[in-house]
Amino acid sequence: MVAGDAATLFGVLSNTDRLGVIRALVEAGPNGMSAGDIARKIGASPSRASFHLNTLSESGFLQRERQSRTLNYRIDFKTIGALINFLTEDCCKGSVELRNCCSMSLS
């Protein structure tokens, strides 16, 4: 991933609702969640959630699939992984001991 692409993706993530969607869908795993369940999980109105889901889908963070009358969303783990790899590819000059900083919890 090149810096410009990473910057664009970070711009998409620079919203608390969108971060909430990403976290909810990472937690949901490969089965994903319906748009309505996502809206409830992040405390957003259906229209506000739909706006953010569309933005995340268009950027490549999410995959969506229609199941009857419901839209189901899943994380595209390749996109998330590429962004994480962009951040850490040169981390700590390859030192295993220093790289452990990237796996420590910030909370």
**What is the SS-derived class?**
alpha+beta
Q: What does the radius of gyration come to?
A: 15 Å
CATH topology: Arc Repressor Mutant, subunit A
- CATH homologous superfamily label: Winged helix-like DNA-binding domain superfamily/Winged helix DNA-binding domain
Query: What is the string of helix and strand elements?
Result: HHEHHEEHH
User: Level of helix content?
Assistant: 55-70%
Percent in strands: 5-15%
Domain count: the total is 1
Task: Compute the separation of the termini in Å.
Answer: 28 Å
Q: Which regions are unreliable across 5 or more consecutive residues at pLDDT < 50?
A: none
Shape: elongated
Quaternary structure of the protein: single chain
In short:
By secondary structure, this protein is of the alpha+beta class. The chain is 58% helix and 13% strand.
What does this protein structure show overall?
With 107 residues, the chain is an alpha+beta fold. It has one domain: Arc Repressor Mutant, subunit A, CATH 1.10.10. The protein is built from 6 helices and 3 strands. The protein has helices spanning 3-13, 16-28, 35-42, 46-59, 77-88, 96-99; strands spanning 33-34, 62-67, 70-75. A 3-stranded antiparallel β-sheet has the order 1-3-2. A hairpin with a 2-residue loop joins strand 2 and strand 3. Helix 2 (16-28) packs across helix 3 (35-42) and helix 3 crosses helix 4. The two termini are 28 Å apart. The mean pLDDT is 88.
